[in-house]
Amino acid sequence: MNAAAPLNQRQADELTKRFGCAVTQWYGMTEASPSVASQRENEVNLKGTIGRLLPGIEMRIIDDDGNDAKTGEFIIRGPNIMQGYVSSGKVDSPMTTDGFMKTGDIGYVDEDGYLFIVDRAKEMIKVKGQQVAPAELEAILITHPLVNDAAVCGVYNDHGTSEMPVAYIATAVEGHQEQQRLKEDILAHTNSKVARYKQITGGIHILEAIPRK
């Protein structure tokens, strides 16, 4: 069992290869007692999804202004959802006026009703008003055969007017020239797969390992 964050596809495929068993994704949180959606065993070939909503749970996807959106924050409602957090004897409710709870997770639903998590709302990088998910770029970076691990964050440009995505990668490639060629190859590999505003414009830094908590 892997918990607290989405399992990327390369890790899921490696687990299946190593242990010869199916790896299914599930989505939930303590506030939802704890289940929201799950991937059935016969759906393991559907890559990247966390499955469909469980019976009795409703979900909307909203933008920063609370309007319905194709990609945005998941808000959920159902009999298993908590009423709020108790602090100093008072209930602090994260609910909307119509009883939906904000999850803090950014994602979308495809035409068949399968949910896909893009990232956490608090992790999003704001590039000239557009939202960029670090996890989306990280998932592309680790598909490069010479990238062992990757992390993406946002840094402000020299004018302080907008953030830029910056990538940190772990690789076994050594030597200055070899690493420079690798950076160029990785940029081409990644930027060709995303919209222009999502491209890694803040550069790539090579580390021995990506620090993990």
Automatic annotation (TrEMBL):
<protein>
    <submittedName>
        <fullName>4-coumarate--CoA ligase 3 like protein</fullName>
    </submittedName>
</protein>
<dbReference type="InterPro" id="IPR000873">
    <property type="entry name" value="AMP-dep_synth/lig_dom"/>
</dbReference>
<feature type="domain" description="AMP-dependent synthetase/ligase">
    <location>
        <begin position="3"/>
        <end position="85"/>
    </location>
</feature>
<dbReference type="Pfam" id="PF13193">
    <property type="entry name" value="AMP-binding_C"/>
</dbReference>
<dbReference type="InterPro" id="IPR025110">
    <property type="entry name" value="AMP-bd_C"/>
</dbReference>
<comment type="similarity">
    <text>Belongs to the ATP-dependent AMP-binding enzyme family.</text>
</comment>
<dbReference type="Pfam" id="PF00501">
    <property type="entry name" value="AMP-binding"/>
</dbReference>
<dbReference type="GO" id="GO:0016405">
    <property type="term" value="F:CoA-ligase activity"/>
</dbReference>
<feature type="domain" description="AMP-binding enzyme C-terminal">
    <location>
        <begin position="136"/>
        <end position="212"/>
    </location>
</feature>
<keyword id="KW-0436">Ligase</keyword>
